[in-house]
Amino acid sequence: MSNEFPQALTIAGSDSDGSAGMEADMNTFQRRNVHGMCVMTACVAGNSYGIQASHALPTDFVDQEFQSLAADFKIRASKTGMLADSPMIETVVKNYQKFDFGPLVLDPVIITKHGALLLEEEAFETLKQQLIPLATVITPNFYEAIKLTGIDIKNDDDTIQAAHILQEMGAKNVMLKGSHKPGEQTEVRDFVLLEDGSSFWLSEPYIETDRVNGTGDVLSACITAEIAKGTDIPTAIRIAKKFVTAAIANPIAVGHKYGPVNHLAKFQA
């Protein structure tokens, strides 16, 4: 029968070197045995040294991408990645409310894991007010959580408070990723707050490496893939944490500087 195989969607930009964005999401979907589809929002020309050029796609084209997919496929879970500006975020919100593309995993691409701002202030407010309330799972990194909540996260209590604020903003489930401080830590601890009010911590060894491009994309894509297969939210998050840790711990030699994680790394779920 048609559409029996699990299908997942990434709504993101295309990263030409394959280390992040839509390409990283699609690699993750395939690795987790899910058919991946995409709504492309932008194109980025870049390599392991950095980004040399970028181009946002017209919102009417993005509308058509959504419409074309909805007319044919049964998408069981979706995720967002980089959304360039307020009009693009509003376009995604409008279409996600119009079509049934399953639970939404929101990777709020606002600030890099090193603290560099990626989203202009107007778009940031649009994301807070319109997109977060649609999220089944939100996966901010340490700096994004600070920006979104206004909490200066210094300890576990601050982390827990920030997660509750994100839930109050509309996200049903929160995975708040821990900080990454080279030379200062031996583990990465993430806090998970679930819709029913229960919570847990996840901890894996901190791996000091420059092969970490796309880690946030891969984590959120893995959660999305698992949800598309019918995995419950807590288990999907746990699998994604293990998947990303293995992908970082087993690097591949691609590029000269900041390389991608290894989607093919074996791991124990």
UniProtKB/TrEMBL annotation:
EC number: 2.7.1.49, 2.7.4.7
Pathway the protein contributes to: Cofactor biosynthesis; thiamine diphosphate biosynthesis; 4-amino-2-methyl-5-diphosphomethylpyrimidine from 5-amino-1-(5-phospho-D-ribosyl)imidazole: step 3/3; Cofactor biosynthesis; thiamine diphosphate biosynthesis; 4-amino-2-methyl-5-diphosphomethylpyrimidine from 5-amino-1-(5-phospho-D-ribosyl)imidazole: step 2/3
CDD domains hit by this protein: HMPP_kinase
Catalytic activity: 4-amino-5-hydroxymethyl-2-methylpyrimidine + ATP = 4-amino-2-methyl-5-(phosphooxymethyl)pyrimidine + ADP + H(+); 4-amino-2-methyl-5-(phosphooxymethyl)pyrimidine + ATP = 4-amino-2-methyl-5-(diphosphooxymethyl)pyrimidine + ADP
Keywords per UniProt: ATP-binding, Kinase, Nucleotide-binding, Thiamine biosynthesis, Transferase
Sequence segments annotated as region (Disordered): 1-23
Pfam families referenced in this protein's UniProt entry, alphabetically: Phos_pyr_kin
Superkingdom, taxonomy of origin: Bacteria
GO cellular component, one term: cytosol
Classification via Gene3D superfamilies: 3.40.1190.20
Recorded GO MF terms: ATP binding; hydroxymethylpyrimidine kinase activity; phosphomethylpyrimidine kinase activity
Enzyme class: transferase
Family: Belongs to the ThiD family.
NCBIfam families tied to this protein: HMP-P_kinase
Full protein name: Hydroxymethylpyrimidine/phosphomethylpyrimidine kinase
Species assigned in the record: Pediococcus pentosaceus
Species lineage: Bacteria, Bacillati, Bacillota, Bacilli, Lactobacillales
